[in-house]
Amino acid sequence: MSATDARGSELGRYLKARRAQVRPEDVGLPAGAGLRRTPGLRREELAALAGVSVDYYIRLERGRETHPSPAVVDGLARALRLRGDGYERLYELVELASGRVGELPASSDHTVRDSVLRMLESMRPLPAYVVSRFNRVLAANPPGRRLLPGLWDWPQEQRNLTRYLFLHPVGRTLYEPWEETVALSVAHLRAVAGADPDDPELTALAGELVLKSPEFARLWERYDVCERGGGQKSFRHPGVGAMTLTYEVMRLARTGGQRMVVYQAAPGTPDETAMFRLDSSDARPRSARSDRPEPADEPRPAGTRSPAHASAG
């Protein structure tokens, strides 16, 4: 398959996956009697809603038509009820299929700059870590490490948050509700794939999880798209108990897609107390870079509050 065919096929996969998510009654069409062999809309129904011929739409879905006009793309987006990230993803794939994308995103860089490592340490007692474009955990401060118990038992190249959610026994019980967390994780992975859905790191990860996790395979096939920049997560942590934390995601420039994730809790709450316990564990803290050996002693940087002082306000 040529590069052009592959790019057109990714657009076709997206159209087919999103078509399966739209019910006839969602767009004012009668559902009809009996069972429908096609989940969601039929090709001819979507073509009529988008204002294109059935033959033209079939060529789009099969990757044989790679230059739809803006009017056609808008019609498809309306018919598929795409908004926000889903709408942007459609236009991104059209650009990719047409060859108008001038340069694919840089490959993920797995080296974390020393300045970023110092930032991670300065975040304490807030849990923080750095992930690659496709969610491989590259570095973490001590509370960030303890937030994800069991992840560090895996070899460094296996420490991926999405893999952890689906394949690690602790990852499957840490988040509440797990089903919502994994759905958003897969949708985010689809979103950050961007204009390079055939990146070797992504295809290896997705291929492994499709084979090992029926839940991942089902969610991956849906092709939901949601790029997250922050939010809230509830944990059932085996070491510190239940807690709900907010988090922010910050992109790191010139890294090929690295992001820093920082968690926090409202001051004076039980959630904050639980979070601070991650930084005051009896376990010996590790340095921010996950591949460095543990130091004999790890002093807190000047100006950083201790957990007890911080919780006292």
Total beta strands: 6
- Main pleated sheet: 6 strands, antiparallel
The average pLDDT value, as a whole number, equals 81
Ends apart, CA distance between termini: 62 Å
The structure class reads alpha+beta
How is the largest sheet built, in terms of strand order? 2-1-6-5-4-3
Global outline: elongated
Q: Residue share in helices? A: 40-55%
Radius of gyration (Å): 22 Å
Low-confidence stretches: 1-5, 102-107, 282-313
Q: What is the helix tally?
A: 14
Determine the strand fraction and express it as a percent band. 5-15%
Element-by-element helix/strand order: HHHHHHEEHHHEHHHEEEHH
Task: Describe what you observe in this structure.
With 313 residues, the protein is an alpha+beta fold. Strand 4 (230-237) and strand 5 form a beta hairpin. The chain contains 14 helices and 6 strands. A 6-stranded antiparallel beta sheet has the order 2-1-6-5-4-3.
What are the main properties of this structure?
313 residues; alpha+beta; 6-stranded antiparallel beta sheet; 11% strand
Strand-helix topology:
Layout: H1 3-19, H2 43-50, H3 54-61, H4 70-79, H5 84-98, H6 114-122, E1 128-131, E2 137-140, H7 142-147, H8 161-167, H9 171-174, E3 175-176, H10 178-192, H11 200-212, H12 214-222, E4 230-237, E5 241-251, E6 259-264, H13 270-277, H14 307-311
Antiparallel strand pairs: 1-2, 1-6, 3-4, 4-5, 5-6
Helix pairs in contact: 1-5, 2-3, 2-4, 11-12
